[in-house]
Write a structure and sequence with these properties.
alpha+beta
Length: about 700
């Protein structure tokens, strides 16, 4: 036999001479430089490095405040420093271990971690299973094998992503938790943090939800039922899947006999107990203003780099600009379904978003992000959408810069059926009529399109673009054309962006930065965010801001916003809409807007479908009724500060004639005649100039 093996090796060496020589040299080199020792050293060094890294991570994880975090809740404070509510978090009603029945304690230990009271926070067998799973599943941990302490570390201190690195971190965190806390504390935290399905966290609330009693009163069978749910709260839901829950409960009872928590007779008796559901649980209503609170969380994450987990669980006090009266009234308006269009034939709901700002500070006073049932941090149509603003852009892109370039509230604008530039851009008025000449304030109030485009052409597109950008809105190069006058923005805007822009008109020319949070204080009392100082930017003069307000008062008094005017209040602002393509089966709009303000509040409201197509568009105007209702409800709670100017139409009337000064007799008539002649000549020159531009392709 030995001779055959020798002959076989000799044959291999002859057939692979290069490999044979390499192998002999490799063995000599290995022995010469003692590679085994180096390999051991490298492995130990890597092990020490990894251990050091995760030890430091565990030591800096604020484990010492872990139990306290179960009892603290992040509070949201309103503009007056009063508590407005609490944020969502994975917290049920906290109870100490003596208030939790032994039946559920024993069932959980028997099921989840039999060596709980003797282990160091981790299980060698569990680690071995995790390692094997890592190899078998090509570098992915599939779960299982974690002790109660490791599960607590994962749920409260780490992400839920299943990776080998997270598993190592979980191990070191568990060791640190085990060092800092007693076993009773660990079990208490785990049972108060466990998820039991149907939106219920913690054993106390689960006991109320499923059995109508406190956790201290659970029977053996009930304790086993709750323990059974930990593996899969949905699959073992005793409400929806009673058979699954009963089967798993009985298995848990068997496990309790194996761990000597129950005798066979006690387990048999518990199995005979009928599974009866009694619900006496009522969820906390502290998330009172869901869209405002969602926006607060988003701002803390996006602007201040605070994680969602920290926001929800670290017991912050977040001070905001919220006015609870305004917010309640805005929410009440959105609860009035009769104000909104009916759902489309396929059940799709027309959406809407509305936001109110304090023009003096930019603080968000109230917000509703969407219609329908709220889901946590869902898409918000008040702060997230990007839709074409329609005619609400005219004050920013046309009329404000026109005032800066020498025009007056009563300057005569051309209103004729005409084309502009090389592309023969041909805007039309919505009503299909043309007045020839129209004073600026009337063109704005009635939202006439041609005069707005004509005026932008007169002052120059570049000045209109610069004005819009001063108001905080980006205008891409592709949108830098005359269509800007009518809201032709490819990217679009959100209600909060438009509300911020309009703060300049309500605040004497100073635009303030929109924000929800004014200050964040941590659980120790330290201020970690301070935004109490108002951020503002002057975008037009006080005189021009006042003139703009005088013209926009006319929108609600005699213009396109008459039906949106709140009862008993003067409001300035602008309406807007965007039309659907002619190819649609009927006329209608994609977007409807109203932006209105007083010296105390700016409100922007949008209505439309999430996605517009031939089956999903607005066939009638609803936005006026929505805006009127919310402002009629909100304005009684405001300070009732009066405007310092009148409606431009009233000013013109007091001056005797639109577009003229007070005067006498033939001198006024002569002046008006000369003015008309000059305006007509100017129109002829402008038409000629546009034709020439078209010929030269400019």
């Amino acid at each position: 036999m030995k001779r055959k093996q020798t002959e076989k090796k000799h044959h291999w060496g002859e057939s692979h001479p290069y490999l044979s020589r390499f192998w002999r040299r490799f063995k000599v080199a290995w022995r010469h430089i003692e590679l085994t020792r180096w390999l051991i050293l490298i492995v130990l060094t890597v092990f020490m490095g990894v251990s050091t890294f995760y030890t430091i991570k565990a030591k800096t994880a604020d484990v010492g405040s872990l139990k306290a975090s179960f009892k603290t809740v992040t509070e949201v404070m309103d503009r007056d420093g009063k508590k407005a509510g609490s944020l969502y978090s994975q917290k049920g009603t906290f109870v100490e271990l003596p208030q939790i029945s032994k039946s559920v304690q024993n069932a959980v230990i028997a099921t989840e971690d039999r060596t709980f009271y003797s282990n160091l926070g981790f299980s060698i067998k569990g680690i071995a299973r995790a390692g094997l799973s890592y190899v078998l599943h090509h570098g992915t941990i599939t779960g299982g094998g974690s002790t109660i302490t490791q599960q607590l570390a994962k749920n409260k201190l780490l992400s839920q992503k299943q990776t080998f690195g997270r598993k190592i971190a979980e191990l070191f965190m568990a060791v640190e938790i085990n060092r800092v806390y007693s076993k009773k504390d660990v079990l208490t935290m785990y049972l108060n943090n466990a998820y039991f399905g149907n939106g219920v966290w913690g054993v106390q609330d689960a006991s109320k939800r499923y059995f109508g009693r406190d956790a201290s009163q659970l029977t053996t069978a009930q304790g086993a039922t709750l323990a059974a749910m930990l593996r899969s709260p949905s699959f073992y839901d005793p409400i929806k899947h009673a058979d699954n829950a009963t089967s798993r409960r009985n298995l848990v009872l068997d496990l309790e006999t194996q761990t000597d928590y129950l005798t066979d007779s006690e387990a048999t008796a518990a199995k005979q107990e009928k599974l009866t559901i009694t619900n006496t649980y009522s969820s906390a209503t502290n998330y009172r203003y869901p869209y405002y609170f969602d926006a607060v969380i988003n701002e803390a994450i996006n602007d201040y780099d605070i994680s969602e987990s920290d926001i929800l669980n670290k017991g912050y006090k977040i001070y905001t600009s919220l006015d609870q009266n305004y917010q309640t009234q805005m929410q009440n308006t959105y609860n009035e379904t009769w104000l909104f269009p009916q759902n489309a034939a396929d059940g799709t709901m027309p959406q809407s978003g509305s936001v109110s700002l304090d023009p003096k500070t930019g603080g968000v006073l109230a917000v509703v992000g969407r219609r329908g049932e709220h889901t946590f941090r869902s898409y918000d149509y008040a702060t997230m959408i990007k839709r074409q603003p329609g005619s609400t852009i005219k004050p920013l892109a046309v009329y404000a810069p026109a005032l800066e370039n020498g025009y007056h509230y009563d300057s005569e604008l051309t209103d004729k059926d005409m084309t502009f530039g090389k592309n023969k851009y041909h805007p039309t008025n919505v009503d299909g009529t043309y007045l020839g000449q129209v004073p600026m304030y009337e063109a704005l109030a009635q939202s006439r399109n041609v005069p707005a485009v004509w005026l932008l052409d007169q002052i120059g597109i570049s000045k209109g673009v610069a004005s819009v950008e001063k108001f905080g809105l980006d205008v891409p190069e592709a949108d830098q054309n005359l269509a800007l006058a009518l809201g032709g923005l490819q990217t679009g805007v959100s209600p909060i962006q438009m509300a911020q822009a309009y703060t300049a008109f309500a605040n004497n020319g100073k635009m303030t930065t929109a924000h929800f949070i004014t200050k964040i204080v941590d659980a120790t009392g330290a201020v970690i965010v301070d935004k109490t100082k108002t951020e503002s930017k002057t975008v037009l003069s006080q005189k021009n801001a006042e003139t703009m307000t005088s013209m926009m008062l006319g929108v609600f008094n005699e213009g396109t916003g008459k039906n949106a005017k709140p009862v008993g209040y003067n409001v300035a602002g602008k309406t807007g809409s965007t039309e659907v393509p002619d190819s649609y089966p009927g006329s209608g709009t994609k977007d409807q807007w109203v932006i209105g303000y007083t010296p105390d509040i700016v409100t922007a409201t949008w209505l439309g479908y999430d996605k517009t197509d031939e089956q999903h568009y607005l066939t009638s105007s609803y936005i006026a009724g929505i805006f009127k209702q919310e402002m009629t409800n909100i304005l009684p709670y405001t300070p009732h500060t009066s405007f310092t100017t009148e409606d431009a139409a009233s000013i013109a009337s007091e001056n005797g004639q639109a577009g003229s000064d007070n005067g006498d007799g033939w001198l006024d008539d002569f002046g008006n005649s000369v003015g008309d002649t000059l305006n007509n000549a100017k129109d002829k020159v402008n038409e000629w100039y546009n034709d020439v531009k078209g010929l030269f392709g400019q």
